[in-house]
Amino acid sequence: QRDIKANDSEYNGTFNYAVNKIKTSKYTWYNFLLINLWEQFHRVVNVYFVILVVLQFIPEISSLNPTTSIIPIIVVLGLTAMKDGFYDYKRHKSDSSVNNRSSSVVKDETLTEEKWMNIKVGDIIQLKNNENVTVSCTLRNTEWCFGLVIFAGPDTKLMQNTGKSVLKRTSIERLMNKLVWLIFAFLLLLATVTAVGNTIWERYVGVHFQVYMPWASYAPNEYMSGFLMFWSYIIILNTVVPISLFVSIEFIRVGQSWFINFDRAMYYEKKDLPALARTTTLNEELGQIEYVFSDKTGTLTQNIMEFNKCVIGGTCYGEVYNEDGIAIVPDDSTPNADFSFNKDAENSFRFFDQRLINAITSGDTKVHEFFKLIAICHTVMPDFSPEGILTYQAQSPDEGALVGAARNFGFVFKERTFNTITVSELGTDVTYEVLAILDFDNVRKRMSVIVKDPEGNITLFCKGADSVIYERLGEATDEDIKNATTVHLDNFAGEGLRTLCLAVKRLNEESYKVWKEAHSKASMALEDREDRLSAVYEEIERDMELLGATAVEDKLQDGVPETIANLSNANIKIWVLTGDKQETAVNIGYSCNMLTEEMKNVFIISGYTFEEKWLLVQLADNLLKNVFYVFFQVESEIKQAYEDMQCEDSPRSVLSSRDDLTPVFANGRSIVFQQDGENKFGLVINGHSLVHALSEELAIKFLELATLCTAVICCRVTPLQKAKVVELVKQNQKAVTLAIGDGANDVSMIKAAHIGVGISGEEGTQAVLSADFAFGQFRFLERLLLVHGRWSYMRICKFFGYFFYKNFAFTLVHFWYSFFNGLTAQSSFDDWFVTLYNLVYTSMPVFMLAVFDQDLNDEYCIKFPKLYLPGQTNELFNIKIFFRSIIRGIFTSLALFFIPYGAFVDGMHSDGTNITDLQTLSIVISTSLIIVVTLQVALDTSYWTPINHFFIWGSIGIYFLVTFAMYSNGFLNPLKKICTGVARTAFQFPSLWFTVLLVSAICFLPVVASRYLTSLLWPTYTEKVKAHKAKQRKMKAAESLHAMSEKIKSKFQIKRRGSRARSGYAFSHERGFGDLITTGRMSMRRNNSQRQSQNN
């Protein structure tokens, strides 16, 4: 409740209501640095490296210059801040475009232009036709109106419902967080080993050096020395914990997201909708999806409804027959029905059954009442264009299609006020008084309108799902009409049409007044208002008379069957969660290849009680687990179960399947199964059954049953049930889930899934605004998962494996060197190399690998969907792969240190001088390291681009350039430790290059050999496809070469004589062209090809 005075800013200001300014940005120019650093230091890794920087300023424990950690942490924090600032700047621009939007506000009895952000609670604003009030809310059906601002800014329903998005993390990222802690534990272990080793060395070896190398005053004994060495080795081995890992991942994901955004193959040209990655943190998760939960209407279908058929009084209209009386599917050549009787009919409207037109023009009362109900029972708003053309603004495409159909059949909805509705009935305008609107919701699944006609008759018109309408029919409905309508409804649903039943009830004045009084009390109740209104609605929506049913067609989107088939081949289980009736959902399941004729069983579950649900789930589970279940065993168990439950009188089927299945038991219900076909199963369950299936007692059992099925369809479900189904799978299955939808009723499941995908459709933008990814058509999901998802997963896995490998290879060189310097924390490399190793020398090659690499192109990724399977089973990066990378890094570090050490420890110049010194050894090791790890990333690269070439070979060139500059004679020598001229001298040693070659060979031969043998003896599916691709390429090359050689032969062919004997005639033996020449009939010169053909 709010206390507001219109246009009284002074009075309204006393309540401190929120202003209308929206703010989705996080930073301002003055607090950006402070807040961003505060957020970044919530990461444990960043705090860890700041502590390292502090430790390096303690001279007693630091053997490295503090710049080795200061520069990397500054670069990492700076790059992250730049990224955060860039995206926040975009949010600032978005906020500014909304806040600075102009609006007309009433001030001092005049209209003045005011910025949207300056509008306050209590202001009166003018809204104009087609002007957006908020997102997905537009003023219709009037040129202008005035509105009083009640809520503004963050208090509005839109902003309240927006809330904070749940932070989603990928499974690889969660694994990475655990591995970082494991690496940190390994670092502590190494530091402990070296500290203990230093203590032992100082006690038994170092004591002999006391004469000329006494202990420092701050380390008077070996124990204190060991303690200080622990912290020294924490510093010197800190690179084993990768500081640039997480910032590199963020920028890699940004690059991968750009590829999604700019993918022309995912651009929906019809609506000018490109694909959009609304988050940059979930790309690799797209390559690990196992479950897809999809809405049907507008997601699998076009959500563009067309009135197709109807049944009125048991008679079906809309079928098309040929001259032989056989039903056919209409096409463009099929003649349309004659709508010339109706001047308001649209030329684009298609209906082929002339019988319905004849019934209307002949005055059939049932048909008239049928279309009168359609024209009255709705919430559609009429709108006239500037040219005077009548259009409709419908809340849902179904209502728009139905009201449009009524218009074309002569019942034109023309005008609506708050208490009247005007319909032109075959050219005569009739105004009805609207007494009550009993609106539709997902629980009621119906809507009703109570009207009074000009004669004073009160009528209730109702439309809704067949299941709820049939339950409320009275004795006035003829059983034959009811049964005939049921048959036609089943036929409509079998064709995949969306159906609604229509019913009517005549009311007298007295009964209506009694009901109206109860309705008024319920609508004004302060507590349980919704429940009381529902009870009042139930009182009047009973004993109705069935008029008929409508069938509206919602065609599948382009490419849906192919997409679902390909995703299924990729071992992705697809669940459709829809509000449509069971038969429609099943038919759509078959038409879009979710359900196939090859499936072993398609179980259809429709139990209404908990006991029924428990029985059918148990039986279906048994059938699935034992496909050769003996018939009489099933029969006896079912009979005994029903006898125990004493529920033989139930009229509903609890478990049924396709019409070709054999019934096992029938006593008012049926339980059937089939044992033919492949070992694939489908499951269909309705909303009534789902209520019990999601209960605590049955949820796990239902999940076990559902996960054994290839396809699952949940029909007549509510938005809340959609979210619960997703949560059930997400919480109990170790699988990555994706939810895709296009409307507001899909938002809950989109947010519940690991990844949410929104389709920009006919139902607004709510789904897109709540999603992680968005595009225009369902078929693009195939490319998003099988191409971009697979590539992103493969790239990030390569990145992680290589990153740990190169860091362990680099860091452990210090550890091996410690056994030759008394474990005194001496660095194997100069400080600048330590600083630049991760930032410059090795960062860009692997970054480009993680952004551009493709083991197979997009065509093969889609053509061979089983390539997607490694992501689902975490084959490319897991604990095993992690330890394999670590072991390779350890082996490489051993080769990097001990081979150069063995080669140079007793080395001498040609003049007999010693060449063994730490700086030379450091250059040999560092050169070997850079070449080895760079060649490794080259070996891992499958798809070479000019960018990859530039950064891979350029990183080696940068290393030599920087090294020469650092060790040059005064050119750049900021560190006192560097010895001038060492690099130039070292690179002149042939032994250095031989050592580098030897180290590279020893490091690479095992890798190349193991990869070759593995691909030869135990090839993966990916390697088989690569071999197939290479074979195809060779065949095409051979065919092209053969075609080129044939072309060359034909062009330079030399004509040979068959015999050396001369012919007896100098002219052709055939008749010549003399007659043609002399008669003038051949006046044009014949070309060479014609002459050649004649000669041949």
TrEMBL record:
Stored SUPFAM superfamilies: Calcium ATPase, transmembrane domain M, HAD-like, Metal cation-transporting ATPase, ATP-binding domain N
Essential cofactor(s): Mg(2+)
EC number: 7.6.2.1
Reactions mediated catalytically: ATP + H2O + phospholipidSide 1 = ADP + phosphate + phospholipidSide 2
GO cellular component, as recorded: plasma membrane; trans-Golgi network
Enzyme class: translocase
Ranges for domain P-type ATPase N-terminal: 4-70
Location relative to the cell: Membrane
Annotated ranges, domain P-type ATPase C-terminal: 768-1020
UniProt-annotated catalytic positions: D295 (4-aspartylphosphate intermediate)
Positions contributing to ATP binding: D295, K296, T297, E399, F440, K463, R498, T578, G579, D580, R716, K722, N745, D746
Binding site for Mg(2+): D295, T297, D742, D746
GO MF term set: ATP binding; ATP hydrolysis activity; ATPase-coupled intramembrane lipid transporter activity; magnesium ion binding
Annotated TM spans: 41-58, 64-82, 179-201, 230-252, 799-820, 832-852, 881-901, 921-939, 951-972, 992-1014
Entry keywords, A to Z: ATP-binding, Magnesium, Membrane, Metal-binding, Nucleotide-binding, Translocase, Transmembrane, Transmembrane helix
Family: Belongs to the cation transport ATPase (P-type) (TC 3.A.3) family. Type IV subfamily.
Protein name as it appears in the record: Phospholipid-transporting ATPase
